[in-house]
Every structure is written in C-alpha cells, then in structure tokens.
Write the structure tokens for this entry.
Amino acid sequence: MRAIGFKQSLPISDPESFIAFDTPVPLPKDRELLIKITAISFNPVDFKIRQSAAKETILDEPKIIGWDATGVVVDIGSDVSLFKAGDEVYYAGEITRPGCNAEFQIVDERIVGLKPKSLTDVQAAALPLTAITAWEMIFDRIRISPEKDKGKSVLIIGGAGGMGSIAIQLARQIAGLKVITTASRPESVEWCQHLGADVVVDHKDLISNLKAQDITEVDYILDLIDANGYWDSMVQLIKPQGHIASITGNSTPVQLNKLKTKSASFSWEYMYTRSFFQTEDMIEQHHILNRIAGLVDKGVISTTVNKTLKGFTVENLKTAHQLLESGKTIGKIVVEY
C-alpha cells in the first residue's frame, strides 16, 4: 500500500518533511479492523507530532501519522463483533499506532463508529477526533446533564477551529447551554454564529469584551487554545462551583490553588486516554461516534469541513499542515482520496 510519512521532524517547507513510500498492507487480528481509507482530515496534533517525533534523530522507517478518517472495512480480526466487511466507518484511531495517512489502516473496533448515512466520506472525515473530544469534555469530564443544566452558560475559548466548531453545536443543541465563544476575524465570527453561538467576542482583552456584553461569570469553560495564557482570565470568569476543562498543553503548571475559594473544578481532556490505557470503558468511543452519527442524520449536528483537497498526495498533506500551522483555519481541512 501507499503511505505518506516522515523520517525527520523538519519544517513543512522542507522537501523531505513528508515522503511517499510503499509498505505492506497490515493484517487484522483479535478485535482489529482493516479499513480501506477514503478521506482523512487534520488536527493540530498532526503537525505537533510531525514537529517533535523525530527532532534529533532520523527514523529507520517513515512514521505515519493522522487521526481522522473515513473508509470501508475490508477485513476483520477473529474476535470482531461490532462490524463486518463492507461497513462504511469513521474513526480517529490511536496515538501509539500508525495513523491514517495511508491507503489502509488497522484500528480497534471499540474506537470506530458507523459513518453517518447522510454525509459524504469527506463530510464525515471532518468529525471523529473533534466530536469525541468535545463530547468527552462536556459529558464525561464536566458531566453536564441536559436535564439539570439546561440554560447554564459555557465559554468556549477558540470557537472557529475544528474543536470549537463541534463543541459549539454539542453545547447548544445537546446540552442546552448558552454558548459564548471567542473569535477575532469577521469570517470566524460569522462561522461561530452560523454554528449556533449565542455570543461571540474577541479573545484579545477577553474580560473587558465579555463585560461589554454584560457577562462577568460563566458556569463552564472549555479551553481549546492555551491553558497558561488564559488561566487568570478563566479563574476570574468561572462561577463558584463551576468547572473548567482544557485540551491544551501547559508549559508551566496551572495554579489550581487559585480555584480553591470558588470550589471550582478543573479537568484535562485527552481523547487518546481510553485507547492508550485500554480502559474498561474504551468501547464508549464507539458509542459516542454512533451517537454523533445519529445526531447528524437527524439534522441536529452538521459537519465542520470547510476546505477539501482532492488526492492523497505529499503536496496536499503539506498544504493541510501549512494551513493548520498558520493558526487561522476555520473548521476542518479534508483530503479526499
């Protein structure tokens, strides 16, 4: 099969930052699926790992990354019970195994869902990683109840990116929250409003911009940008007994003591936790993806794809990474095979 990977962590402008190569098609075993990939999408984790995984070394074999795909099941392991050959699926995959930047991929069935019937492969490929992450933040980490918490407020820091695009929809349409989010450019503000945000403010001088909207505190905060950079603002904005959840890395420890007097909670969210540790509830990601597919097919949630590149080529992967590294992408970028 054809795959695209890297042997060194190089600037995306370098001719060797991605290389195409041939490698054997893997065979599934146990609860594994062999999936023929039809479309892939991209997340910040892609370029972060490309930039760091082979910084001071040259790998013997190219590393294949990528954690968002749609495809068709072509073979199954001996213990598979959730899928059969011919099923159309979508998934994010595991951080410790070869990724989806290839023609075929092995994935554990417990983290795969049936593709939404109403979406094309391109539209569906935009959703898995961000949908799982946003669902886990809202319903598994903060444990918001649509019945008890409807009408409460959530601040989503970073609303126009891939993560924010699905988090806005889940928070508004499923959790029933008042959604406040950040965006700075006219096109990103419009994107957030289209997805259902009630209030959109510029992230620069966040406290003052929220105060101008008569918002001085919120029940929940989803940090999708920079835990360290926004920590003091989040501490000030979170309501007593509120909850902050973050997906971002922190260069210095967050000062949890600042939340003490408010009895506020803080959670990290890492989508790969369940597969990395093979947790007892690992199959929950299969259920989340199937719930998302159901919501999409009912018209409750929409795809977040905003740019499509045609062809599984080195050039298209480089373009996708360049756009992501700019920090100005809106929604998701998808490569159609």
